[in-house]
Amino acid sequence: MQLRFEDVEKYINVLKLTVDEVPFCLVINVDESGIQCYQDGVRKNFLIPASVANDVSCYGVDRAEGRISVCAGITLSGECVRPLICTKSQVSNEELLSLGVQQHLHGLVRYSKSGNLNGDLFLEWISECLIPFVTAKRIEIKQRNARAILLTDNCSIHTIDEVKEMLGQANIAMLSFPADSTQYFQPLDCLSFSVLKRSIQNGRGARTKLTPAEGVLDAVDALQKATTIKTTQAAWRLAGIDFALDHGKLVAKVVAESFQSIIKKLKADNTITSSHRPAPKRASTKKPFGHLNEEYIKKK
C-alpha cells in the first residue's frame, strides 16, 4: 500500500492538535526491533558455477541462536523507558545476574515461543514499565493530570482494545502512524534502531554463537548506545517533532518545516515505486490511524 499525501496531511494535523504544548518528557515513541545472530554475523563467501553467477541464489542460514526482540520506548526529552527484552529460549535470573543484568534496572526479560513480542507481553510492558515511568515524570514536573502521548505503529498487538483501554485509564493518548510511513514519522525507525543494529554488529565482531543471556546483555548494551540524549533528540527531529522552552517549561513543538523535507523524500520514494507492480494476492485493508483511544480517554 502506497502512502498517500492526504494521509500525511491528516497525520500532521493530528500531531498539531495533540502533541503541541505537551511536556516533552511525556511524549513517547514505542516499537520493537528483532535481533538475530545470522542477521548480524560475518560475511560469507561461496564458490558457485560461472554459469549461474548472474542468477539470484538463496542459501540457508544458521538460526540456532534464536531471536531476541527489544521493545523500546524513547521520549522527546532524550530518555529511555525501561525496555522489555523477549527471548526465544528460557533465561534464568541467575544467568542474567551473573552478567550484571538486573531486571528492575535494565529491563524486563521475558520468554515467548517465537522470540517475538505478543499482546500479553506488550500489556505487561505498559503496566510494568510505561505507566510507572509516566507517573514518575508527572510527579517530577508537578503536573499530575498532564496527558501523555504514545506514538506507535498499527501493529496488531499495539492496537487491541485492552491496550487502548489501559492507556486511556492512565491518561495516555495513543497516536498511530499512517500505513507504510514509519520510515518518515517514527523516531525509532528514523534513527534509533539503525544505531541499535550497528552497535550489535560492532560489539559482536566475529562472534556468532551466544548464549541467550549473552544475547540479552548485547541487546541492553546496544540499546543504551542507541538512546543517548543527542541520538534520541535527533531521531525526533527527523520525524518532525522538536521541543521549545515556553514560560520556563519544556514542551513539544511540531515543526512544520521538517515535514517539507519528509514530503520531498516521500515524493521521491513514490516516484521510484510508481512503476507497474503485480496485484497483491490479498486485498489490503486500510487501518485507521491518528488518535486511536480517544473514547477511552473520554470515559476516564
TrEMBL record:
Annotated InterPro entries: DDE_SF_endonuclease_dom, RNaseH_sf
Domain of life assignment: Eukaryota
Position of the signal peptide: none
Bias-annotated ranges (Basic residues): 278-289
Molecular function per GO: nucleic acid binding
DDE-1 domain boundaries: 82-236
Coiled coil regions, renumbered to chain: none
Residue segments, region Disordered: 273-300
UniProt-listed Gene3D superfamilies: Ribonuclease H-like superfamily/Ribonuclease H
Protein name: DDE-1 domain-containing protein
Organism in which the protein naturally occurs: Streblomastix strix
